[in-house]
Amino acid sequence: MATVNIRRDVDDKFYRYKMPVLLTKIEGRGNGIKTVIPNMEDVARALARPPAYPTKFFGCELGAQTSMNNDRYIVNGAHTADRLRELLDTFIDKFVLCANCKNPETELVITGKGNNEDIHRDCKACGAQTGLDMRHKLITYILKNPPKKKEKGGKKGKKSSGMTAEANVGGPIVFDKTEDGSGEDDEGSPAGTPGQAAVPTTGTDIDAALGRTDPILGDPDAAEAITKKLQTVDLGANGNGNGNGHGGDDDEDDDAAGSPYAVLGIWLQENRDAPDADIIAKIKEVDIVGKHKVLVEIGEKLFTDDVDKELKKRIALLQVLVTSEKHQKSLLGGLERLLALSPTSDALLAAGTTPKVLMTLYQADILDEEVVQQWGTHVSKKYVDKDKSKKVRKSADAFLKWLDEAEESDDE
Question: Which GO biological process categories is it annotated with (predicted)?
């Protein structure tokens, strides 16, 4: 993809800060005409900002409605690419570049509470903290939808702030461009492009090496230390030297006998007590490193009817494996299969297992709020039949209601 300097007033071809050229696509006609921005996530990642921010900014400046459903970023009306690129330059100047050194290595930091909230840019290059125009309409949206906070233990590339998996796990990352939208659910939800995280080159028992105890959410310091150490394990390329993982797309039938996913699933069922390192080594052995369907097998085959308790022992593993929204959706799909197809499914759902599972993953920062809410409101037959899918989501009502109430409380 063609790239341009983030500061387009800089002509230096060796300028280190680049971003993809913003692309647009006009769809519809008449009153339904709209402008789709197909590579908004890539542009936003380069700017270290959530893709919703520049999209909303376009809407504010153009007086147009915007929508950000199913990873599609849309501005109502027909707008030329040149016009949106000009507005993107304005967004970069107002919300990205440091006002002191004009460097884009900044983070948005929200301080204060209630009516005294303030936002400033924290520059990692010069250390300056420069304010924003708090009168701009986008400010209200940012305050209601603050950027994800950095975790001390690192987050494996799923943050919208632009931090890549490579920066967090300490190993080279290959972005697998062969994965297309086949991971869509029935509602046509295209998945993001996952970073292909690597795996240990040996089956060393990480648990023993780290002196690991089960990471319990009630002991965040211990869990954080374990996760941080797990991420420092050499996640180098696989044995063939290219680090590309399983040679085909992630669209291979994971239920087909002999497929790497089926092999992994059988192994997981037979080795549920295996340490994290052995699971990672097995993923490497069957050559499906970084593939989102790995998480379907993990969710369905690694756990049993005691999944709400077992999950707490696998927090560090899941935090390493789940690196994108697509991975999150696949993990939810695997857990949906587990809960819906278990012989004791009715008892599991009635006992409140679904809310407990979602709360564990949410508090461990493995699932994002938006992903869970979308999953909870879109019944799908991708993983189980629609009746079972509806039943699982119905059993999650308590957690989904809690999320809604928490969001309303934050807004107030």
Answer: formation of cytoplasmic translation initiation complex
